[in-house]
Write a structure and sequence with these properties.
The chain is mostly helical. The chain has 12 helices and no strands. Helix content is 71%, strand content 0%.
């Protein structure tokens, strides 16, 4: 299985169909998963990390959809940029790496063929994550400020335009890109880890249980239809990747969120990266909001991978 090329290539995909159907699918998925994002952000920005319920549970369902408008309007173009960069670069890296290795007579290098798939996924995931940040960072800054507003403040200032004007007035246009460097530094390893882990797990599991040419010895697994097995493998690989990427990058994500937004109930974000990191470290708050992030990343990745 190590030398087999990836099953779906960017050149094989109908781009117009993908993006037309994708617009509807991504919008619906964004709406469905938005409460997880709100729960994560409120947990990360709450004043007392030890109180797990105060930052997660809200009074009514509408509070779980604050900031949804700006997220939907900006997430779609950002996602198109992400997918195009991801798939084009993954196919390019995968093809060239396999061609290079297949031409060499060095057995040690040829033994690297099983690593091509996770390597290509990691490189492509990192490039895709970086390319989408020009849109993602302003979207995060605006939507997250709406998510953490107190009810009284939200009634008066709870619109994207008012929040944007307030940021530009007090911090200039640079305020919309607050935490941009840290966001890049977070998205690059997160994207690389997710896609490398996903590609590696899927490649290995398909070779063991999802290849029609391979005889599965376990009777219970063999009784499961091949299509169902392949679907289970995709979901398992996606959630394995979500756990790995979330656990390894959660501290950076928490610091980034607190730097961009500040504490819940405050419209004024913290200005110092070091002070934010020091405060979170002293209160054991670096991994706050981890479970909602794993759930969001796992579900999103499962749907994204199955869409092909």
């Amino acid at each position: 299985m190590g030398g087999i090329k990836a099953d779906t290539q960017w050149s094989d995909i109908d781009k117009s169909r993908l993006f037309c159907i994708g617009t509807v699918m991504y919008s619906a998925l964004t709406v469905a998963l938005h409460p997880l994002t709100v729960a994560k952000i409120r947990r990360q920005t709450q004043t007392t990390p030890s109180n797990s319920s105060s930052g997660t549970f809200l009074n009514n369902i509408s509070q779980y959809y604050r900031g949804l408008g700006v997220v939907v309007s900006l997430a779609i173009p950002a996602r198109f940029i992400y997918i195009s960069t991801l798939e084009y670069s993954r196919e390019l890296v995968d093809t060239n790496a396999r061609q290079f290795i297949s031409k060499t007579y060095n057995n040690e290098i040829r033994n690297l063929l099983p690593l091509v798939t996770p390597f290509a996924g990691g490189v492509a995931g990192g490039l895709a994550a970086v390319s989408s940040q020009l849109i993602v960072v302003p979207m995060d800054v605006l939507s997250q400020k709406l998510m953490v507003m107190e009810d009284s403040v939200y009634k008066e200032k709870g619109s994207t335009i008012k929040v944007a004007r307030s940021i530009i007035k007090t911090e200039g246009w640079r305020g919309l890109y607050k935490g941009f460097g840290l966001s890049l530094f977070t998205s690059l390893p997160a994207g690389s880890i997710w896609w490398a882990t996903y590609a590696g797990c899927k490649d290995k599991l398909l070779g063991l249980y999802g290849d029609p040419d391979v005889c599965v010895k376990n009777d219970a697994i063999r009784s499961i239809p091949l299509v169902a097995r392949q679907g289970i493998i995709q979901v398992a690989s996606a959630f394995s990747a979500a756990v790995a990427a979330s656990v390894l990058t959660q501290p950076l994500d928490t610091i980034k969120t607190r730097l961009q937004v500040g504490k819940a109930g405050s419209m004024k974000p913290n200005s110092s990266l070091l002070s934010v990191a020091k405060e979170l470290t002293s209160t054991s708050g670096l991994y706050i909001g981890l479970l909602p992030r794993i759930a969001h990343m796992g579900i999103w990745g499962s749907v994204l991978s199955c869409a092909y």
